Amino acid sequence: MTALLEATDLVRVYTGRQGLFGKAAPVRAVDGVSLRVMPGETLGIVGESGSGKSTLGRMLLGVDPAQGGTVRFGGTPMPERATPAWRALRARMQMVFQDPLAALDRRLTIAAQIREPLEIHRIGDARARAARVGELMQAVGLRPDQAGRYPHELSGGQRQRVVIARALASGPELLVCDEPVSALDVSIQAQVVNLLRELQREGRRSMVFISHDLKVVRNLCDRVAVMYLGRIVEEGPSELLFARPRHPYTRALISSVPEPGRPLDGRVILQGEPPNPAKRPSGCAFHPRCALATDVCRNTVPELRQTDPEQTAACHHADGTAASRAA
Amino acid sequence: MANLVEIRDLRVAFDGVPVLHGVDLEVAPGEALGLVGESGCGKSVTWLAALGLLPSKASVTGRVQLGETDLTGAPQSALETVRGGRIAMIFQDPSSALNPVLKIGRQLCEALRLHRGLTGAAAKTEALRLMDLVGIPDARGRFRLYPHEFSGGQCQRLMIAMALAGEPDLLIADEPTTALDATIQAQILDLLARLRAEMNMATVFISHDLGAVAQVCERVCVMYAGRIVEQGSVGQLFEHPRHPYTRGLFDALPRLFGPRTALVPIPGTVPDPRNLPGGCAFQPRCAHAQPFCQSALPDLLPQRDGRKLACAYPLPERGQGGERQAAREGVFQ
Ligand SMILES: Nc1ncnc2c1ncn2[C@@H]1O[C@H](COP(=O)(O)OP(=O)(O)OP(=O)(O)O)[C@@H](O)[C@H]1O
Ligand SMILES: Nc1ncnc2c1ncn2[C@@H]1O[C@H](COP(=O)(O)OP(=O)(O)OP(=O)(O)O)[C@@H](O)[C@H]1O
Ligand SMILES: [Mg+2]
Ligand SMILES: [Mg+2]
């Protein structure tokens, strides 16, 4: 089976500023990332704040330009951004962001917002569009009487449903969700997560799900990629990766998740601050914070390599012995 | 032991709309109390009202006692000495607490002068000690930096250092880790637990993250629509919640271990304070509700095991039927 989405060696460099008056220092926000998403598959992307998850998400849709690497969608190279070919492709790939209020137009009713992509991509006539809007609202659990409401008249969870309904309107094969439930209360979060689960089950729709909430990621994703400072440091099926993380950063990340009933003292608490992306540490970028670090880690960048049948990790010490010693 | 803080029948209304409907709460010296509940249930307003920090359009009634001092109706000048002195608060919105145009060292020294009368070299030494205490590496070298030159996690540590400047008896931390990612969040929770032990400082930890609350707190209050609906030790509430709302909050959480099944949301949303349902405010979303719940508002009543509960049809007590096992499975997996 061919991948729906295939990214190879993606690179994105921002020329940001250091301090208030400092000179521009380039930040390699995404630094050689390759990944594949199969039809119907959900890939989770987790990692520290600033590790490049959102940038990568935008690059996968061609919204953010890549300085290096390629993205192939449905087996063909992604057309240049803002070209007619790229715009047409946008009907097949959509994005959902964290803040539903920012994503919606305050002056439009929710029915009008959900209809918008159908108008942009010239899908159906007026009657077909109205029917499709009704269908979509039902699919995401909005009541027909809410069609004429404005965004501020809805709860946070309902607004996020509107955003998802709009993203689904053109029947996209790929949905990239960037922190879609982070701003929601646990109870409402569960409603939206279940909605996404239903969408997964109903068809061959692929998803890239970016989140810092590892519990939600584990619940929703088939596979998970862990990012650290612009690179994927571990990847694997989500059950396996959470049960048996191989990279020391993944272990610390999973161990950090507070769980009722799991005491504080049993956790691996990472020491030190997240590294400055403009001053990438030599060798393995994680080595200054890693309990297992040795000379090879300081000098040589570890490649992603297979640690288990379906799991890869970029760590010089990811073999069984070192891993179990650190756990 | 006498309570450090006692709140009695605290009520708050904005423009005539009540949002806090009579909250009773006490904090013992050195204790860690958690306050949980969905957005808008009144967690922040409770403490803002107690400390006299609400805008003047808010009408506040009730009694707030700090040791021997009655804070209700106390003049602003008296409240100002308490705030940052005996009681310090870390706010939900971090940008509001650090001044972006002042160097960090200067801000800490100013807090030390205000609350402890320290100046000059003594203030600087103490400011550096506080920066060390909260784990800012190279405090001396970073004394003269501005807030934007620190990471999000470090800014949160600096806010904690500012709060500690007055050697408070009570630290109120309002969502101190919500904006941080998992590994940094773990560092801050660890820091709060360590500080409390070292300084015998009582802590009120406001959060919607039940896991985080379980890790720092001994006792928990669950709030819904401006009232406390269940209150007890972390063990009691987390192992065996009895209010259907408390149970609902746990059931909605995805798990890090165990099978990946559909989540169990609480249906519906929190009610609008202008338009509260009759009877128990949770009743329209409650699977256990009976017709009685629509007419009678349950009081928060003490239970045999020491917890307090406001529900006419609570989940059965521990040891009754198979519910105990079910509740355990629901919470620990
Ligand atoms: N427009 C921009 N200009 C300059 N630097 C940027 C820009 N956007 C992002 N960056 C930098 O690129 C890096 C990656 O940022 P990105 O937002 O992709 O991270 P993230 O993993 O999504 O973080 P978070 O979890 O906080 O959302 C960071 O160091 C960030 O400061
Ligand atoms: N300054 C204000 N003016 C009017 N209403 C207010 C004000 N501050 C709070 N409220 C209302 O009071 C109620 C309680 O708000 P509060 O901020 O205490 O909620 P919370 O439990 O802290 O929620 P969150 O988890 O979102 O911080 C809400 O209905 C809110 O809209
Ligand atoms: Mg992001
Ligand atoms: Mg609040």
Secondary structure elements and pairings:
The complex is a heterodimer of chains A (327) and B (333).
Chain A: E1 5-17, E2 24-37, E3 42-47, H1 53-60, E4 68-73, E5 76-77, H2 84-89, E6 93-96, H3 100-103, H4 110-120, H5 126-139, H6 156-168, E7 174-178, H7 186-202, E8 206-210, H8 214-220, E9 223-228, E10 231-237, H9 238-243, H10 248-256, H11 295-299, E11 305-308, E12 311-313, H12 320-326
Parallel strand pairs in A: 3-8, 3-9, 6-7, 7-8
Antiparallel strand pairs in A: 1-2, 1-4, 4-5, 9-10, 10-12, 11-12
Helix pairs in contact in A: 4-5, 4-6, 5-6, 6-7
Chain B: E1 5-14, E2 17-27, E3 32-36, H1 43-50, E4 58-66, E5 69-70, H2 76-82, E6 87-90, H3 104-116, H4 120-133, H5 139-142, H6 152-164, E7 170-174, H7 182-199, E8 202-206, H8 210-216, E9 219-224, E10 227-233, H9 234-239, H10 244-251, E11 301-302, E12 308-309, H11 323-331
Parallel strand pairs in B: 3-8, 3-9, 6-7, 7-8
Antiparallel strand pairs in B: 1-2, 1-4, 4-5, 9-10, 10-12, 11-12
The structure holds adenosine-5'-triphosphate (ATP) (2 copies) and magnesium ion (2 copies).
Description of the molecule:
The complex is a heterodimer of chains A (327) and B (333). Chain A has 327 residues and is of the alpha/beta class. Chain A has a domain at 244-327. Chain A is 33% helix and 23% strand. Chain A has twelve helices and twelve strands. Chain A has an eight-stranded mixed β-sheet, with helices on both faces. In chain A, a hairpin with a 6-residue loop joins strand 1 (5-17) and strand 2 (24-37). Chain A is globular, with a radius of gyration of 21 Å. In chain A, 48% of the residues are buried. By secondary structure, chain B is an alpha/beta fold. Chain B has two domains: 5-217, 3-Layer(aba) Sandwich (Rossmann fold), CATH 3.40.50.300; 241-332, no CATH class. An eight-stranded mixed β-sheet of chain B has the order 6-7-8-3-9-10-12-11, with helices on both faces. Chain B is globular. The model of chain B is unreliable at 321-333 (pLDDT under 50). The interface between A and B is large, with 48 and 50 residues. One magnesium ion is lined by residues 53-54 of chain A.
